[in-house]
Amino acid sequence: MARPDMSVNIAGKLAKVTEHWSPKTVLEVNGLEFKAVKVKGDFVWHNHPEGDELFLVVRGELTIDLKDRPSAVVRAGEMFVVPRGLYHKPYAAQECEILIMDPPGVVNTGEASSDLTADEEWF
C-alpha cells in the first residue's frame, strides 16, 4: 500500500492496467481510495449507498448515465461526482483512462450482481 506522503505516477499505474472495468487501488488518503482503471463499452446500472464517487478522466471521454437526470460527459482533465446512492452507468465508446475516488471497500458494481464485479486489488 502506498503511503500518502509518497508520489504516485498516474500514467505508470494506468499503463499496468490490462483489463477494462477492473479498478486497482493506487493510494489511500484520509480514508478515501484512489483507483486507476481503464474502461471501454458499457458498465452496469448500480449505486453506492456508502458514499459519493468521484471520476477524474485522465485520457479519453466518459459518459455517465444518471437515473432521472441528464447524462454527464466527462473529458480528459475533468472530474464528475456521482452523489451517494444515485444510480448511474458509465460508458466509454473508446478506451478511457480514469481515476476513481471512493471510500475503502466499495465494490465497483455497488449492490448490482455482475460479471464485471472486480476484486479489490492494490498496485
From TrEMBL:
What would be one Pfam family of this protein?
Cupin_2
Which CDD domains does the record cross-reference, listed alphabetically?
A: cupin_YdbB-like
Give the top-rank taxon of the lineage listed in the UniProt record for this protein: Bacteria
User: Locate the Cyclic nucleotide-binding domain: which residues?
Assistant: 29-93
Matching entries from PROSITE patterns are given as: CNMP_BINDING_3 (PS50042)
Q: Which InterPro entries match?
A: cNMP-bd_dom, Cupin_2, PKS_Associated_Protein, RmlC-like_jellyroll, RmlC_Cupin_sf
Instruction: Provide the protein name.
Output: Cupin domain-containing protein
- Origin species: Streptantibioticus ferralitis
